[in-house]
Automatic annotation (TrEMBL):
First and last residue of the signal peptide: 1-22
POTRA domain residues: 26-97, 276-355, 358-430
UniProt cross-references to PROSITE patterns, sorted A to Z: POTRA
Name of the protein this chain belongs to: Outer membrane protein assembly factor BamA
PANTHER family the record matches: SORTING AND ASSEMBLY MACHINERY SAMM50 PROTEIN FAMILY MEMBER, TRANSLOCATION AND ASSEMBLY MODULE SUBUNIT TAMA
Source organism of the structure: Phorcysia thermohydrogeniphila
Subcellular location(s) per record: Membrane
InterPro entries in the record: Bac_surfAg_D15 (IPR000184), BamA/TamA_POTRA (IPR010827), D15-like (IPR039910), OM_assembly_BamA (IPR023707), POTRA (IPR034746)
GO cellular component, one term: cell outer membrane
Pfam families per record: Omp85 (PF01103), POTRA (PF07244)
Domain of life: Bacteria
Amino acid sequence: MRRLFVLIVVLFVSLLSPFSRAEDKQLVEKVEIIGNETVPDSTILFYISEKPGEVYSPKKVAKDIKTLFKLGYFENISVDVKEGKKGVILRYFVKEKPIITDIVFKGNKNISASKLKEELGLVDENGEEKELREPLSYKFLDDLARKIEAVYEKKGFPGTRVFYTIDRTSPTKAVATFVIEEGHKANVCTIEIRGNKAIDSGDIKDVLETKEKSLLHLRFTAPLSAANLEEDVEKIKELYHSRGYLDVEVGEPEVVKEKDDCYKVIYTIKSEGEPYRFGKIVFKGNTLFSSKELLKLFKKVRPGKTFNQELVEKLSNRIVKKYGELGFIFAVAVPEVKIHPESHTADVIFHIHEGERAYVRFINITGNVATRDRTIRRELDLYETGVFNTVRLERSVRRLFNTGYFENVDVKPKIVEGNKVDVNVNVEERLTGMFSVGAGYSSVSKLVAMVSLSKGNLFGTGDSGSLSLQAGARVFYFDLNYNHRWWLDKPQTLSLGLYNRYTEYFTYTSKRTGFSSMVSRRIWEDWKIGLGYLIERDKITDISDDAPDIIKDEEGVTKVGMATAFVSRDLRDNRFLPHKGDYFRITTQLASDFLGGDEDFYKVIGEYAYYFNLNELPTSFELPFVASFHAKVGYASAFGGTTRLPIDYRFYVGGDTTVRGFQWGEAGPQDEEGDPEGANRELIFNFEVGYDVTKILRLIAFVDVGGGWWDKYDLGDMRKSAGIGLRVLTPMGPIRLDLGWKLDKRAGESSSEWHFGMGSYF
């Protein structure tokens, strides 16, 4: 019908227009668009080939009408040709199709409208409905109807039928209503595997898309879906292939009705065949790495081992990653498998295309308001005109996160020309200043007033400083700290601290005044070293008669001059709320008279923490948790003129940063009165599982094991606890709140303890 209309228009124009004769050669003076409301003139004119100043051609007009119809925006198009002053005037009269502005569902009882819109792609990633402005198209509506039926079939409602109606809300707008006749619910109550000998039925069920009803797994519905059954056959084959059974034959699933909406699905393994083993492993096209080097990337792929297609893919990915570490990000490794049925072996040939090394053209930084570009660029391990590689990219993201100044860091490479890459860095800054006034109470300090002022990323330079004051009847604390990053324009930080702390304890009074300094420097990639010095004056007075001997021994004025050195490596993706990576640090401290003090002792502390995102496990379901493990070992000893480790430098096991659920020092040695006396040996293990509620809030469950001793490590005397807690990321780091319960409660001890603190836990 549309073609007939176009031919009539062309014929009409050709016969009636006095300007249609070839010998007239009339020019187009003007092109006008009439009748459009939503489609702009510029869009329509773009698709019209007849332009002012060109020779008028009826054939072009006919072609333009066809082109405009193909756009899908118009129900009717006609052309009027009239004489102008300098040529002909073409007037295109268009009638637009109505725009579908909304989709409505009726009859959907088992699947909500919001869920249907999500399945149809009508909802964005934030869960908001997309603005719909789709020209009326029956093909579009038919596709949606088929998708709705597929959604119901996938959810276990076979036989669902979908119809639609179109209701115009105005001459240019319409709403499409989908009427759904839901099919009968079909659930899988039993799955039976037959003919399997090499692989356990449970392992096969684990990979199936189709699942059984199970109270144990909180699976109250198990939809029967034809699409899932087809996919299951392929998944069973993939499982057998991964175990080396390349000749496996799987029959079509059999569905048997048991009762009402309950069905049994039977999967039959017709033939398992014999397991294949790896034959030759060959690499072709590799020049940067030898075949021996590439084979070492994955030890499970070796001649004679059971063939596994998944392992082949893993080795291929590791090869690509290996090239990416050197900047060859365009490298590909395509595995070719050649099967030898007579010997049940499979040769694997990796065809490698190394490509060119990638270089950084420009680094573009956006999103920073308070932070200077230079402050961000110096944390990047990528440089303009330098080599681009995946390892440097990951390290750059990690370093920016670990400054603590950004809520989000998005670093995206973009290939611009040849082997050139632009690196687009977009940051979202967090608040880094905090002023607080408050009050606190404890059994030791009684009522205390607190004032603190802290600022990170001072003037956008990355420096930070803090000033805090606590005052009460029994305490007076003054702390001043400053951290100067990239001191002397090197990847190093100068930290300075000054403090004065006065505390009246139950049995004595302590006054400590000191100055500390530390220079830490990144020496290679993620490794850091530090060297510091502390000088402190500690005065113990007003000792009561019933004070422990360890307190009485400390009476008087003592000076401590101490040097500190450390080496660390931090591969955590975010040191405040990590999701993956590990952390390692060894710290040594030496105090002696030649360093300006009165005490001679040394301490060695080793720490290791590992974080793992459980979603990276090869499971078919989501595990949105972060697991972590932390171990800490400490060793200290006095020497020279000091016979006993000073009280303030002992290990006190128990509390919010060691073994939670215990009071400070309660999990270590205690005197006759039950007061902590500290130790010169400590060993602590912490296990956590965390769930991120938001980007700044994490809920955790933990188990802690640890102890402190004198001159030995007694693994049989380690204390144990478990509990729950939360982490809230604030401008100056996470706030910790934990509740721990003792798992080996002893007489006279409380059953649980609350813990509150600020800063990273481990």
